[in-house]
Design brief:
The protein has 431 residues and is an alpha+beta fold. The protein is 51% helix and 6% strand. The chain contains 15 helices and 10 strands. A 4-stranded antiparallel beta sheet has the order 8-7-9-10, with no helix packed on it. It has a two-stranded antiparallel sheet with strand order 1-2. The chain is globular.
Length: 431
């Protein structure tokens, strides 16, 4: 297995320089509180619009990804009415004697919905776990396990990174069973090796001659890596490689972003149409990376905020999201992508929009940490936003390390001074 490391390193270096030149200053006069308010309102409006459009449980992959989005958005804004609405639909679905179909990646990804409902249900509702596990286990059952430990469902279309990877990741989150995260990590690693190019972007499906940087295809890749990195143990042997691939793609996406804040149908061609579904997925990946401390450059914060505010302008709560590329099959014909139909309210755009709102709410909605006010020289113009985690900040509010256990690591930006964790003084005169 290979990751084309040398070519990628050169490519990412060039991209990094370009991005730093492209993004300077603030995106606009919009404050973080205004952007947060936009994410909360528009995410809520989109969730309610989608629920109204889908009064019953649907197992199609665009609907499944959207139901999942409603659940995680509900948790992010602490509004249980949304997840409860999905919960009621699913219990009625089960009570009606329905069983989700299995048989390909687009069917099986539906498992992320019962898994998320199980994770949030209190007390735990066992049928949710049963339904999710059935779909996750089908993919890597004896009948579908390849000699290389991948699933026979693996087509090496970039879409599969989410369909397989996120289902297995959700199974791990619900059961804490290592084989599920191993399935996800191995699958993503192999897809990265086969589909990611030296510039950080992903081809749609090289086996079919679809050597195009399709927007939503890259959105599936970005979202799957983001979901896995949120869950995978720090010591997992493939985490570093997947994080590297994620970082390379994020630099590339920042470079490809349109001046309006949106992204295009083909990411390397700004003459192709503005596309909403991929924009939502990219905002989800970027905002999550900033929130988690994976992406520290200011350009990523700008890209995420600018992307969200632009995307919100394409949504209205009556008709849904504009400029959504409808379902598209991999093709060697470039015009299939450039001349493909766009629709308003197409279900392929709903999930990414709600995911983006979720990530922005998680990031900008965390409580302000007031630090350094009682120490000479420690005054902040803008306090960092953190939750209950182990990140460490200096007195200027800069993240200097992601894990308190490794605080003394010589590679960290640590000098003598005052350091804070969760808003409390962590140590003084560390070096």
């Amino acid at each position: 297995m290979r990751l084309k490391a040398s070519k990628r390193s050169l490519g990412i270096f060039i991209i990094a320089i370009t991005v730093c030149a492209l993004f300077t200053g603030n995106i606009s006069a919009q404050t973080d509180s205004a952007i947060l308010a936009s994410a909360r309102k528009n995410g809520l409006d989109m969730s309610n619009w989608f629920l109204a459009q889908n009064p019953n449980m649907s197992t199609g992959y665009p609907q499944s990804c959207s139901f999942y989005g409603v659940c995680i958005f509900s948790e992010a804004i602490k509004d249980t009415s949304l997840v409860n609405a999905v919960d009621r639909r699913y219990r009625a679905y089960i009570a009606g004697g329905n069983t989700p179909a299995v048989g390909n990646v687009d069917m099986n990804v539906h498992g992320i919905v019962p898994f998320e409902l199980y994770r949030q249900s209190n007390p735990k509702y066992a049928p949710f776990l049963t339904y999710g596990t059935r779909m996750a286990d089908d993919e890597f059952s004896t009948a579908h396990l390849r000699p290389d430990s991948l699933s026979t469902y693996s087509r090496f279309w970039v879409d599969d990174m989410y369909m397989i990877g996120s289902l297995q990741t959700q199974a791990y989150k619900s059961t804490n069973t290592a084989r599920y995260i191993n399935n996800a990590a191995r699958t993503l690693f192999r897809y990265i090796d086969s589909l990611q190019q030296p510039n950080g972007l992903f081809y749609h499906c090289p086996a079919l001659g679809a050597n195009w940087y399709w927007g939503r295809g890259n959105g599936w890749a970005a979202s799957s890596m983001t979901e896995l990195l949120l869950a995978i143990p720090a010591a997992h042997p493939l985490r570093a490689q997947i994080m590297s691939a994620y970082m390379q793609q994020m630099w590339a996406l920042a470079r490809c972003q349109d001046s309006s804040g949106m992204w295009h149908q083909l990411l390397d061609d700004k003459t192709t149409f503005i596309e909403s579904s991929c924009t939502g997925m990219f905002v989800f990946a970027l905002a999550t990376g900033v929130d988690q401390g994976w992406l520290t450059a200011d350009s990523f914060k700008v890209a995420a905020k600018k992307g969200w505010m632009a995307l919100a302008g394409y949504f209205d709560p009556v008709n849904g999201l504009r400029n959504v590329c409808i379902g598209l099959s991999a093709s060697s014909d470039r015009t299939v992508y450039t001349q493909h139909q766009q629709q308003t309210g197409d279900s392929h755009g709903t999930a990414g929009f709600i995911w983006a709102a979720t990530a922005m709410a998680r990031w900008l909605g965390k409580p302000l940490v007031q630090i350094g006010s009682d120490h000479p020289g420690c005054k902040l113009t803008e306090s960092p936003k953190v939750g209950v985690d182990n990140r460490i900040f200096d007195c200027k509010g800069r993240i200097i390390h992601g894990d308190a256990k490794n605080f003394r690591n010589k590679n960290s930006r640590i000098t003598k001074g005052v350091y804070f964790r969760n808003g409390k003084r962590f140590a003084e005169t560390m070096e």
